[in-house]
């Protein structure tokens, strides 16, 4: 059963209202008034009021001192961070990612798949004054990003089928040009190509697997050439960075 079919068959209106509020507030750094939430969700004031009060009581939403604005608390972050498989993976990866960033002068982030998309769950900042990095929690499309394509390339058939089913619609099938690119990534063992989102950035992505089979994530370095760096040429810097990233991924998989 895939996600769209499930959404149609099983409905829980009260739960949907609560989730709508949480998702709305997640995009509002300054919070919102109750009236703004009512207008944005196009629902009745009384039903929104009751749901907000329950979310406040359970600690998912906080009320401003003045009492007229509502914003998310840190509780959702705490729940996500407490999820055992993710907590273990990040705990294993973070010190090794920090070491990679220190040694190479490049930033790096760890991406894991979930519900037909992929998400940044850890990142390490470059020791250089200049870097490009993604924020924690950033959602990355599987079809159009280096991290996403690398995840797809190294998924087992069962993982791939489940992931595509979660996407739904026309995206349950991989387009032919992308299928060719995924095969090239599998054969190479990594993906290294210009970023599809930013000019001047080269994405280097390598898989992180457990037991040599199931991919659990991808390490991606958004590579920026460093003027005056050891190794002189950009090609040499890229090769050295790829080697260091592969070594980091292998060490994470062995822990």
TrEMBL record:
Which domain of life does the protein's organism represent?
A: Bacteria
Q: Where is the HTH iclR-type domain?
A: 12-74
One Pfam entry name: HTH_IclR
| Keywords linked to the UniProt accession | DNA-binding, Transcription, Transcription regulation
InterPro entries on file: GAF-like_dom_sf, HTH_MetabolicPath_Reg, Tscrpt_reg_IclR_C, Tscrpt_reg_IclR_N, WH-like_DNA-bd_sf, WH_DNA-bd_sf
Q: Where is the IclR-ED domain?
A: 75-255
Cite the PANTHER family for this sequence: HELIX-TURN-HELIX TRANSCRIPTIONAL REGULATOR, ICLR FAMILY, HTH-TYPE TRANSCRIPTIONAL REGULATOR KDGR-RELATED
- The molecule here is called IclR family transcriptional regulator
Q: What is the species of this protein?
A: Yoonia phaeophyticola
């Amino acid at each position: 059963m895939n996600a769209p079919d499930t959404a149609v068959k099983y409905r829980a209106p009260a739960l949907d209202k609560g989730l709508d509020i949480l998702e709305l507030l997640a995009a509002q750094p300054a919070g919102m008034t109750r009236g703004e939430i009512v207008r944005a969700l196009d629902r009745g004031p009384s039903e929104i009021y009751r749901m907000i009060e329950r979310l406040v009581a359970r600690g998912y939403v906080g009320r401003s001192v003045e009492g007229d604005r509502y914003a998310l608390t840190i509780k959702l972050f705490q729940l996500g961070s407490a999820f055992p498989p993710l907590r273990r993976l990040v705990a294993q990866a973070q010190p090794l990612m920090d070491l990679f960033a220190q040694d190479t002068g490049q930033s790096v982030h760890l991406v894991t798949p979930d519900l037909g998309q992929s998400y940044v769950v850890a990142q390490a900042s470059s020791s250089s004054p200049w870097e490009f990095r993604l924020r924690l929690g950033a959602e990355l499309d599987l079809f159009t990003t280096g991290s996403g394509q690398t995840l797809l390339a190294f998924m087992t058939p069962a993982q791939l089928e489940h992931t595509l089913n979660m996407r739904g619609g026309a995206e349950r099938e991989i387009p032919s040009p992308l299928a060719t690119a995924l095969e090239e990534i599998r054969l190479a063992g990594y993906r290294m190509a210009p970023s599809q989102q930013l000019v001047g950035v080269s994405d280097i992505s390598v898989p992180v697997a457990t037991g040599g089979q199931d991919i659990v994530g991808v390490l991606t370095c958004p590579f920026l050439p460093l003027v005056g760096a050891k190794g002189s040429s950009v090609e040499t810097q890229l090769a050295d960075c790829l080697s260091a990233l592969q070594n980091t991924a292998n060490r994470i998989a062995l822990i």
